[in-house]
Amino acid sequence: MNNTIDINCDVGEGVCNESELFPLISSCNISCGAHAGSIDTVKKCLDLSKSYNVKVGAHPSYPDRKNFGRVSLQISRADLIASIRFQMEVFNNAREQAGVDLHHIKPHGALYNDIAKNEILAEIFLEAIAAFRNSTFLYVPYNSVIQKLAEKNGFRVLIEAFADRNYNDDLSLVARKEKNALLNNGEEVLAHIL
Predict the structure, then answer these.
(1) Cα–Cα distance between 164 and 53 in angstroms, integer?
(2) Of 127, 133, 139, 184, which has the maximum CB count within 10 A?
């Protein structure tokens, strides 16, 4: 049996440390521009993914640059679908021009957390990305609403866990506003994943 851990990282979010990260990761989630980044950061990350043979994922979010996509938004179904589809279209155009395959989609921040618990939002998200149902994996949290709904609707699902985040008893992420949300010590992170 061959067990591996996919080291995945969010990139293209304005930190500008991607050239240091790409040699260390096996897959990435590239910001689609709604919470951070730009078409230039998308292109830079796509180029780095080719150079380091890193699997590429799209990282759509609520349209919320002010709060880095970390705040749940009250947004209409139509507007959320339009926003996600626009993000995916812009990302996909750049990806196709770069000649890079799309491995997965992983929603960002509050959208990720909301669709993990809210069936209506999960349905909206799946409707928005329906064109990718058969060709692309969807990264989801274990035993979440989005996992169950995606599997039921024929999406290709990969379950993920965060090495540097703590979890609640229900396996949801501890909110970032809580002081125990993040693990910052390398030894703690290693112990957390083993």
Answers:
(1) 24
(2) 139
Domain-by-domain residue ranges, the chain? 8-160, 165-194
pTM: 0.93
pLDDT exceeds 60 at position 30: yes
* CA neighbor of 171 nearest in space, from 137, 146, 152: 146
Strands of the sheet with 27-31, listed across from one edge: 8-11, 27-31, 55-59, 102-105, 137-141, 156-160
Q: How far is CA 14 from CA 30, 42, 60, 72, in A?
A: 11, 10, 15, 21
Per-residue pLDDT reduced to its tens digit, 112-130? 999 999 999 999 999 999 9
Q: Which of 71-85, 100-114, 145-159, 162-176 has the lowest mean pLDDT?
A: 162-176
Residues shown for the chain: 194
CATH number at 8-160:
3.20.20.370
CA–CA dist 177, 174 (Å, integer):
8
Query: Within 15-118, where are the H helices?
Result: 18-21, 39-52, 77-98, 109-117
